[in-house]
């Protein structure tokens, strides 16, 4: 991350340190249906062991004010025996009335040592960074934890003390993220187990972790639908469909027609271009049936490519571990501020 990007994230975190004392008490429309892409909502929760606070909606800071407003949709909740996963569904930051910050309360009140793993996910073809902070819910609202993560990367908040907090996710980009946190609690015999599997999952309710990243495992039907690669050339829409799990109705990090080690060509039309002089990066935007896919490269490429051009990249499928897969471009873009254009241009 270059100096400007670090400055922007630090500035945003400093802004977050201003106590949030005015919360708009806008009521939640209980009849509205949650628009959640990730995880099924469990209707029955043992309120004695966790508390009804988990049902409260995520809140966003409005673009025109510093007030927080509630979403008209419930969080998605997945219950395990010793932990619970809370998810927001798709959040479009810095778009419409939604500003750069989204938050959700967290209550750790059962035992010292309770902790929360906080992260964000995006469509597997898109990377990026998001800032995470945790502040006390009462008093001056002081920040007690901060981190900056890439998609699926966990930030672990382990205060070793009981308390009530706000978890805040923030970004200066106009970007879509799904926001999640998994917090530990006392044993619940009604929840499935295990919470995490280190390695290839054998249970559709599982999450799987590799290093400090967490992924939703593909469904059995998605893996059973694996097909043989019949072409060397894909479009971005082809890749998007390959990653779409029809059973779960979400994107997963597992290609249906590609395997780790496969080399192929991505050829598609550039729908938009933007150059960021502060970061010295160029963003090339492609289009799928489910939305835009921006890919970022180092340097100013506006004199080499233009909107409407067809461009080809040489790519390789990489194994993260088990049945979780990604692309070498995404790994390169995450490890630095944009990927090297010359490394991937075909």
Produce the secondary structure layout:
Layout: H1 3-16, E1 59-62, E2 68-70, E3 76-79, E4 83-92, E5 98-108, E6 116-121, E7 130-136, E8 143-149, E9 155-157, E10 163-170, E11 176-184, E12 196-198, E13 207-210, E14 213-216, H2 220-224, E15 233-234, H3 236-243, E16 244-245, E17 250-251, E18 263-269, E19 272-276, E20 281-288, E21 291-298, E22 310-321, E23 324-327, H4 328-335, H5 341-344
What does this entry look like structurally?
Helices cover 11% and strands 38% of the residues. It has helices at 3-16, 220-224, 236-243, 328-335, 341-344; strands at 59-62, 68-70, 76-79, 83-92, 98-108, 116-121, 130-136, 143-149, 155-157, 163-170, 176-184, 196-198, 207-210, 213-216, 233-234, 244-245, 250-251, 263-269, 272-276, 281-288, 291-298, 310-321, 324-327. It is globular, with a radius of gyration of 21 Å. The chain contains 5 helices and 23 strands.
Short précis:
This protein is mainly beta and 346 residues long. The protein is 11% helix and 38% strand.
């Amino acid at each position: 991350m270059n100096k400007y990007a670090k400055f922007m994230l630090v500035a945003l975190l400093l802004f977050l340190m201003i106590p949030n004392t005015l919360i708009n008490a806008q009521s939640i429309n209980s009849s509205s249906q949650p628009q959640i892409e990730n995880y099924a909502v469990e209707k029955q929760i043992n309120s004695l062991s966790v508390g009804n606070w988990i049902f409260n909606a995520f809140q966003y800071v409005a673009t025109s004010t510093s007030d927080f407003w509630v979403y008209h949709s419930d969080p998605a909740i997945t219950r395990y025996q010793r932990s619970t996963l809370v998810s927001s569904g798709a959040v479009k930051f810095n778009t419409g009335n939604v500003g750069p910050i989204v938050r959700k309360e967290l209550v750790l009140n059962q035992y010292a040592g309770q902790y929360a793993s906080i992260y964000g996910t995006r469509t597997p073809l898109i990377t990026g960074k998001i800032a995470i902070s945790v502040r006390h819910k009462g008093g001056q609202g002081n920040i007690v934890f901060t981190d900056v993560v890439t998609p699926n990367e966990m930030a672990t908040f382990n205060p070793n003390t009981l308390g009530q907090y706000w978890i805040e996710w923030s970004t200066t980009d106009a970007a879509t993220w799904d926001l999640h946190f998994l917090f530990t609690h006392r044993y619940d015999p009604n929840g499935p187990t295990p919470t995490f599997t280190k390695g290839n999952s054998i249970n559709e309710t599982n999450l799987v972790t590799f290093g400090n990243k967490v992924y939703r495992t593909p469904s059995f039907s998605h893996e059973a639908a694996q097909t043989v690669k019949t072409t060397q050339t894909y479009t971005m829409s082809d890749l998007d469909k390959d990653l779409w799990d029809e059973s779960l109705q979400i994107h997963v990090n597992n290609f249906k027609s590609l395997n780790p080690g496969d080399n192929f060509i991505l050829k598609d039309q550039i729908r938009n271009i933007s150059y960021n002089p502060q970061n010295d990066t160029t963003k090339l935007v492609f289009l799928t049936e489910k939305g835009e896919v921006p890919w970022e490269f180092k340097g100013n490429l506006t004199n080499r490519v233009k909107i409407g051009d067809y461009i080809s990249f040489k790519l390789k499928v990489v194994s993260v571990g088990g049945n979780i897969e990604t692309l070498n471009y995404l790994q390169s873009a995450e490890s630095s501020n944009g990927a090297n254009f010359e490394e991937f241009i075909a």
